[in-house]
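[Automated response] Your request has been received and processed.

Submitted sequence:
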Amino acid sequence: MFLRDSWLCAHWAWQSSRSCLVVLALLLLHTSDLEGRKSHQFVWKTGHWGRCIGDCGSSGVQSRVVWCVHSEGWTTHHSNCEQSDRPDSQRSCFKICDWHLELFEWEVSEWHMCVLVPFAHGEVKPRTSECVTAQHGLQHRSVQCIQKLNRTVVASEICEHFIPQPPMEQACLIPCPRDCVVSQFSSWSVCRRQCGKHLQHRTRSVIAPPLYGGAKCPNLTESRTCNGFISCSHGEEEYTYSLKVGSWSKCRLPHLKEMNMIGRTMLDFSSDSTERSTFKLQVVENVQNFHRFKLHLSSKSLDIEIGYQTRQVRCTRRDGKNVMLSLCVQEATPLTFQSCVMPKDCETSDWSSWSSCSKTCHSGDLSPGFRSRTRNITHIAVGAGKECPEAEERETCNIGGGGRLHPCPRYSWKTSEWKECDVSLLLEQQDPQHQKRTALCGGGIQVREVYCAQSTWDEMHKSKEVTRPVENKLCLAPAPPSSQLCNIPCPPECLVSSWLAWGPCIHENCQDTQGKKGFKMRERRVIVEPVGTSGGCPHLIESVPCENPACYQWIILEGVCLPYNGICGLGTRMLHAECKNYMGEDVSSDFCSELPSPSGTTVCEMPCGRDCVVTQWSQWSSCSHSCSGKNTEGRQSRTRSILALPGEGGSACPPSHALQEYRLCNDHSCNQLYWETSAWSPCSENTLVTALNATINWNGEATCGVGIQTRKIFCVKNNSGQVPAKRCPESIRPETVRPCLLPCKKDCVVTPFSEWTSCPTVCQNGNSTTTKQSRYRIIIRDAVNGGQECPDTLFEERECEDIPLCPVYSWKIHKWSQCVLVPDSIRQGMLGVNEPCGRGLQWRAVTCVMESNHSVDVGECLKWAEPMPSLVQECLIPCKDDCTFSPWSKFPSCSSDCGSRRTRRRTLTGRSKKRDKCQNTELYPQVETEQCPCSIFTTQPHGNWSECIVSVRKTELQLEARLRGHAKECGEGVRFRSLACYDKTGRFVEPSHCNHSGYVEEPCLVPCPFDCKLSDWSAWAPCSTTCGTGVRIRSRWLKEKPYNGGRPCPKLDPKNQVYESIPCYSECNQYSWETEPWSPCEINSEQNSLHCGEGIQTRKIRCVNTTEDGGGETVANTLCNQSEIPLDTQKCTLYCPSECVVSEWGHWSQCPQPCDPNVMQTRTRQVLRSPLNPKTCPEDSQMWPCVLNQNCFQYRYNITDWSTCQLSENAICGEGIKNRLLSCVRSDGKTVNMNYCEQLNLEKPSKMITRCLVECVVNCQLSEWSAWSECSRSCGLSGQMLRTRSVVMQAQGEGRLCPAELTQYRSCAAKPCYSWVLGEWSPCRVEGGHCGDGIQVRNLTCMVHDGSLSAASRQVESALCGDLPSKDSVFQLPCSVPCPGDCHLTEWSKWSSCELTCIDGRSFEAMGRQSRSRTFIIQSFENQDSCPEQELETRPCSGGKCYNYVWKTSLWQDNERTVWCQRSDGVNVTGGCSIQTQPTTTRHCNPVCRKPFSYCTQSGVCGCERGYTEIMRSDGFLDYCMKIPGSEDKKADVKTNAAKNKPINSKMHDIFKGWSIQPFNPDGKLKIWVYGVSAGGFLIIVSLIFTSYLLCKKPKQQQHSPPQQKCLTLAYDGDVDM
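Generated structure:
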């Protein structure tokens, strides 16, 4: 029970706590989830870095976007990501500018060795065991962006901005390993026919070195003992002996202990010899000071010590062993001692402190600065001491700069203001011979100064600050242009219409009508307005005085005549008066109140039925003259005609003179008056508007104030000049004052003076010219509008002060000392030499002194003076046995030129005459010869002619100065060719020997380019229309075609002409038809007795010029509108008495605008005479619908196309104008007077004229030629000089293009080249011995040549070549001559042919390889251990070939053959062929022939010996050999292998070889006797068969046959059952 309750309690506790644990677990999971979500689900993301912005260089800034994203990809707030892990959003960068291209470049190394492609995990792929052709690999190389100046590495992004980065790796192939390839052995050397043992050798050379891990080269030499040992006879030595000379020991001074070695013995340096040589040394007191002296060259004394050096001399046997010296005794024993200079190294002072860095500021180009330090030479090198090191050291400093340095000043190009536009420069290009024109305008060229100046950091705020100019090289960016095209505005041109008709006589001022003075006026209008102001137009109003002026007048309108009786006869007519002004406009009647109104009635008469009827008066004709003078007056006329004749009792017709009336018109004078104005004066100040200038703006812009312009006006009388102003109408008086914008005063602006040019920092020679320094300033802006003028001084110069003069240092040479020999104590102990003579050394003091002879430090002379003279030289103290000679005689003068030779002599003196060795002229020559100098010289031209150098005369220089860079390019010039001077022997000599400058010149001509030439423009043709707009044309034609690169012609028509057209306008009433009155109506009286009815009337018509200039003159009818020509004949009606008479039709009424066909047009006529029967009168009105283009017309403005760009007569290019014209066009297309459109108030286009630009044709402008450069070579025939020019202004439009060649070359004067030529090294020469250490020497010869590679050199005097080389190693080298028995190296073999590394016959590399080798020669097997290693050299070569190596074999001979490797060019080699494919040299049968009587045949199978036949198994192998029966007769051997392939070693074969029957010829064909034997054998067989048949035939009666017998065969067939 207790247990059960306990279990229940525990169970309940677990159940109740389990829920709490679950809740707690969930809370923990949620918390961890939140933490994990925050730390793992949100990450930072970054965008790409943006472009580097900011200033050029390392101060740029790069930015990128940084944001926080959820792991699922959506963007969230930044706070969700860990802030400490946030990437940077900005970083510093290098801002790359275009000018950085010149500072940085990619540096690419050579490709490294090709290596096998590694596996993915990085391990190197092993090479396969069998290589067929090649394996794939990779090549790497380093690529880095560097700065050109100091070759420092910078970020790759800088170079990538301009050029993509070159690849850093590429695929490659690794060829199979190639073993060393050597040639075949040479033949064995010849054995010497001497007694004793000798060796012979043979060698071979390396053809191709081992590559790609191939086997090393084998031994290149083989040695063996000669056959046939020859024993030495009595008295003949087996060995030969040689005197071997050792190398010189180091130079040393004699020590005191060596001086005490008196009576002691010393070995003769032979290890095998027991012979001793003794010598004695005598003590020399004060030995420490013997052979020592001091040269006081500087503050520290220069010690030169003369010591001695020795060398060993041994006697060696042919087998290499040393023996006694007595065995090698010879007449001349080599010296074993000599004097020498104790070596002492060059000594220098400590380095000075580093100079200040040349870069003191930080710039964006990363260029470093430099600093240097120096040290002085305190002791020069003596003897074999170390030479002096460099005395100056330089290193970079302040690379990059960083924040330690302040920013460097920046430099940028500055420009002055443009100068005034100059049109004459372009005009001179068009026609250099042009005459001076006035008032030039249009396109021109203007120039400005371009200079480099320092830019300030706050330049943006002080952009107008003027800074001092600096050197142009400091500005790295391209310079701005110094010239440009410009334009000078041409005076405006104004086109006006013809004068209109004179107006009425009116008061000068209609508001003030007092007085009787009046004016008549006429106007003309502007057709084409000028661009800009209208000041260029002529006067538009003219006036003439007149009497009785009236501004207003009554105009009377008459009504219809109303007869009193209502039918005919007398009656009344109403008069209606209207007040109109002088313009014809209706005004109030109050203006006409001065005169009574004429309105009312007047008496009139209506013709009755039998009265005469006449028409109304016609309109007054136009006035015959525009003005009246003494001999002319204007007249007008009007007419009327008879319509009906009178009847009986009716009123008669008026007489003929009453049918026409005349009146005077235009009675005013012909001297018109008009106002003429002068040009506006410049804008000037006015006290009246001074107060306004403080606040006024002009066109919304602040100005320098408002002033006034004035002009004068004059009243001018036509053809008479100026008249009093009161005679011209005051109402149209032009204004004389107008406001204007005051131009600002501008002072001259100049830059500050530049820095003084630097004076020389190094010292100058005392005889040099005075050095000056200068400075300059540049005019930025010229003074205008009364500003302060520019200063006169723009360039200043002064002499440099305190320039140090270079001190003049020189070497002071003292006398040579006495000849110093090896100390006696050393010399007397060597081989018994006792006499103090022979070669020694002597010294001298050399000091450095100034001009004042004051000694200075030796370093000064080393720096400023000539090379230091030698301090020590060899000397000779003659011995008693030496040969002595007299001095050389002088060379005699030459009798002929350099083809002959001259000699000089010397003779033996004293005892030397009796010595035999002195008689040897090879050792002691007594005669010397030399070539005679040449005195005859010839010249020979060399090379091609130079380009034609155009000469410039002084007059042309002035023109070029004006053109500022337009250099002369064509015309007469000179071309040069170099002349070489040669002597009679053909040796090249100085040109001064030939008395010329080294050139020959001749005139030449550079053809000038000729531009296309056209004629001048023709006059403008008349307008193509007489009414409205048309076209005027002018043309010019081709005069000369272009050639030699001249400007091309414009596009021409087939007639070689070019046209220009402009729109034109003709007044429509300029020419009009004028008609005379109709003649009376003529009735044919023959057919009509009443003289009435229909008839014909005529009139005269003519075309007249209605303009003022025309004066009504009759012109050709073609000038008038042909469609409006009036009729000159018409039908008429002369009414009979009592008929109804009507007037002519009146004008049609106006149709509405626009035309409406529903509206009717009407016209009327009146009854002039009523008939007796009123019903007989015709209709008095007519109606017609307003139909478009029939009786109703609409009007519109027509606008022409823009004209071509028109220039002023004084301009050749630049700004011009183009215009278009208006005309009034009727709806049917007919051009009518402008009044039709103006009356309708139609809208006109706003812009009828505009500016345009005619491109200026500018030839390429070049700078002047620079001075000729120095010659490219100091001597020879191939030297050239050059001069250059640059492009000042590129060609514009169709101007002449810039030439491609901006550089000219000419040959230099031909001067001979002198140089030291080293000869070939002589064979190694051992002084006084047979072998050992010696020297090789070569001669140094002064040669003359012409500087070309293929030139032949000739020997000349040594003085022409100057100083000799200072290095002794140039003339001699140590060498060694092997002694007999020594193992030594051979000479180098010849270079092998150039071989390429190829794969499958294709070149694997661009360059091939050549090899050479040398090997050792063994002369004694005992010394072979001391032999040197064989040597191999390889060098690259071009033009190589691909070679293949294949195995070659000989024919089998006794189962053996020779196998060798052969190169594809037929050379037999060792190596190169694959070992795996090497053919066998011995042939074996498989399986081995072990059967009795069997052997291995030539074909590699087992066969049987002679007398045995092969029994073969079914698998084709030999089973056994069976003896052939009767083989003793040697006749049964027919089918055996032995018979077919007889063994070579068979003795029977040798015995019977000479006489055995051979069935075959040597060519393999059967012999003739074989055919005969075969035929005979066949017949025998046939006869035997027939005989056998007869013998064996069974009789017929017999039933069984006897046993068949076997036929006999002639040979054994090999069957077993036999």
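Summary generated for your ticket: The first strand starts at residue 42 and ends at 46. The first helix runs from residue 2 to 40.
If you did not submit this request, please reply to this message.
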